[in-house]
Amino acid sequence: MANSTLQDITDTILLAGAGKMGGAMLTGWLAGGLDPRRVAVIEPHISPEIAALAAKGVALNPDVKAAGAVETLVVAVKPQMFREAGAKLKPFVADKTSVVSIMAGTTIASLQEVCGGAVVRAMPNTPAAIGRGITVAVAAPDVSTQQRAVADALLRATGSVEWVDDEGLMDAVTAVSGSGPAYVFLLAEELARAGVEAGLPEALAMKLARETVAGSGELLHQSELPASTLRQNVTSPGGTTAAALGVLMGEPGLRDLMIRAIAAATTRSKELAK
Q: Is there a binding annotation on residue 76?
């Protein structure tokens, strides 16, 4: 695959939906060197932050004529709004336009039907808002090498990107990484709650839980060691950590709960895709 950078993009990128995820992507693009004059945004509810970008050259809510030839349409609207919004976006899509979707549960076939174009389906997650997201993407067969490279550069502006060849994997991807931040936040929430039950003041328990989860995540990010090794490094035989892990790793334990949780999320993703 040919490499492409944001600075290499010389045609129009049209972003449909500038909410939390779409806005995070736009911020990442501009911070990464994409020329603001190459970006157009379609968003019915323009935030002050997005409105301020108009002064830098970002076009807001252009019509088809004003937008000109769109190289890539990035669809970041809510999935339940896609049928209505997609019909309005279709006039922007030409024969050579690629369509990059970050909507959960929306298949390549649905995107081709509603919008047309050469479709890339992607699943980012919310840490994209701080440039630490991870996105998994799959391209339709008619996506060219160059179109895939441009999509990769746009998605990589908010974190790392992994490509897969099987669209069927996207439901499990959604369950693991798309929904995954909520599991981590729940861990912090319940760790703090357990601390209170053990006698800690609520504010201190929450501070300890937040910093422990955040710091451990950063250690995992920076370390080349497997998560299992990092866990073992903290666990002294017969110590306090071992006592707690005996509960979490017992039967039934965290492993069983996580398997069931991911299965439930995967099933729901498949249902939404219908």
A: yes
Per-residue pLDDT reduced to its tens digit, 101-146: 999 889 999 999 999 999 999 999 999 989 999 999 999 999 999 9
Tell me the whole-structure pTM to 2 decimals: 0.91
Last residue of a domain, one of 118, 148, 170: 170
Beta strand pairing status for 59-60 and 70-75?
unpaired
Q: Which domain holds residue 243?
A: 179-273
Look at residue 40 and tell me whether its pLDDT is greater than 50: yes
Task: Please check whether residues 110 and 43 belong to one and the same domain.
Answer: yes
Within-domain flag for 81: yes
The whole-number average pLDDT for the span 40-62 is 92
Bridge partners (DSSP) listed for residue 100: 74, 120
Q: What is the pLDDT of residue 17?
A: 95
Domain endpoint, select from 150, 170, 190 = 170
| pLDDT tens figures, 155-171 | 999 999 999 999 999 99
Any binding-site annotation on 78?
A: yes
Residue 127 lies in a domain: yes
- How would you class 189 by CB atoms within 10 Å of its CB: exposed for 0-12, middle for 13-18, buried for 19 or more? middle
Q: How many domains does the chain have?
A: 2
Q: How far apart are CA 111 and CA 120, in angstroms?
A: 9
Closest CA to 58 of 90, 19, 26: 26
